[in-house]
Design brief:
Elements lengths: L2 E3 L6 E3 L1 E4 L13 H13 L4 E3 L8 H10 L8 E6 L1 E2 L6 E6 L2 E5 L3 H15 L4 E6 L8 H13 L3 E7 L3 H7 L5 E7 L12 H6 L3 E5 L31 H6 L1 H14 L3 H10 L6 E5 L3 H8 L8 H12 L9
Parallel strand pairs: 3-4, 3-13, 4-5, 5-9, 9-10, 10-11, 11-12, 12-13
Antiparallel strand pairs: 1-2, 6-8, 7-8
Helix pairs in contact: 1-2, 1-10, 2-3, 8-9, 8-11
The structure holds NADP nicotinamide-adenine-dinucleotide phosphate.
Length: about 325
């Protein structure tokens, strides 16, 4: 397993992280606690030390399961990323989403973040979080104010470093004034390349870690989803046009070289997908969502795959002919 530093924080973390959204169950058709803890432990046994969770994942459940999985481990053997700024227990002026009977609101207000971190620390069963990220921007709180809040958490020893998800170059430029700001986390995969021209150049220039989320496009790029796949009730992929039979067929042009390389190397398709993602300029880590022992172990293996120039070129050629899904144009 390769490791990269989280920006200039001095924290080394496995390039493949355990993405802990799905084990929270919310938007993924439910979860099984034992299977989730086993998956987290299998991922760690396979060399993953970076775990990405958030308060809102399963409304606290994902953090609790992470806490359970790490409780007998020396604390410094794991690097925990968690997120704040999405509240389902209070109302604020900014509604983020309505889901499963809950209304989720955004806020970066200092008192809210200071309340949230205490809840997250309790659920995780730890006295510090390695990297604390805002989950979505809050239009009501200036980034300058957020910088002060996050620096106060660093000074208090509650977090070691901080970052922002779903952000933009203007906000990142302000956050860069904070010495302890070191991470940007964005959606990035073969199918989601907006960050090539948006945040990735800025991250590269300023030595920020770039954590690619949904690198397998929620499972679509694993090569294991076909038109007969059935999803549990509440799974966000039900009705998502990206998972329709027509979209799966359209994807074959991209997947062909990926599958050919996987076959030649006797590897599973998603390993090639994760390795390609990690080899894109500026990408420091991939957050691979896992919810079983088999998935966690196999995703960890991507941390030691290196694609050759020829293999990258073959994939990139297919991607250059891909203009996106018609319904997203
Ligand atoms: N900051 C943010 O706003 C944000 C947003 C989204 C995600 N994230 C982070 O990024 C992580 C990953 O993103 P994601 O979960 O959306 O998508 P992903 O990693 O692209 O895909 C995860 C899904 O792919 C399937 N899968 C995973 N490993 C597999 C394997 N080895 N073989 C076959 N199928 C496999 C699983 O679904 P099935 O088994 O059900 O098919 C899994 O739930 C999240 O867990 C979270 O930590 C952050």
């Amino acid at each position: 397993m390769k490791h990269n530093e989280l920006g200039s924080s001095g924290i080394a973390a496995s390039v493949v992280a355990f993405g802990a959204w799905a084990i929270g169950g919310w938007k993924w058709g439910g979860t099984d606690a034992k299977q989730s803890v086993d998956a987290l432990q299998a991922g760690m046994d396979a060399g993953i030390n970076l775990i990405d969770t958030a308060a809102v994942y399963g409304f606290g459940l994902s953090e609790e399961l992470v806490g359970e999985a790490i409780k007998n481990k020396p604390r410094d053997e794991v690097v925990i990323v968690s997120k704040c700024g999405l509240r389902w227990d209070i109302e604020t002026p900014t509604l983020h989403a309505e889901s499963e009977g809950k209304r989720i609101f955004r806020t970066h207000a200092a008192d809210s973040i200071k309340y949230e971190i205490e809840q997250s620390l309790k659920r995780l069963g730890t006295d510090y979080i390695d990297a604390y990220l805002t989950h979505w921007p809050d239009p009501k709180v200036p980034v300058e104010e957020l910088v002060v809040t996050m620096e106060s958490l660093v000074a208090a020893g509650k977090i070691r470093t901080w970052g922002m998800c779903n952000s933009n170059p203007d906000d990142i430029a302000i956050a860069l004034k904070s010495d302890s700001f070191s991470i940007n986390q964005e959606k990035y995969s073969m199918l989601d390349r907006q960050q090539d021209v948006q945040n990735l150049p800025l991250c590269t220039k300023n030595n920020l870690a770039f954590l690619a989320y949904s690198p397998m496009a929620k499972g679509l790029l694993t090569g294991r989803i076909d038109k007969n796949r059935e999803y549990a009730e509440g799974d966000q992929r039900i009705g998502d046009p990206r998972f329709s039979p027509a979209a799966l067929e359209a994807l074959e042009s991209i997947m062909k070289p990926v599958k050919d390389i996987a076959t030649a190397r006797r590897m599973q398709t998603h390993l090639i997908v994760l390795a390609w993602t990690l080899q894109q300029r500026g990408v420091s880590h991939v957050l691979a969502g896992s919810r079983s022992v088999v998935q966690a172990k196999s995703n960890a293996a991507a941390g030691s795959v290196e694609l050759s120039e020829d293999e990258l070129a073959a994939i990139n050629e297919a991607l250059s002919g891909w203009s996106g899904f018609e319904f997203e144009a």
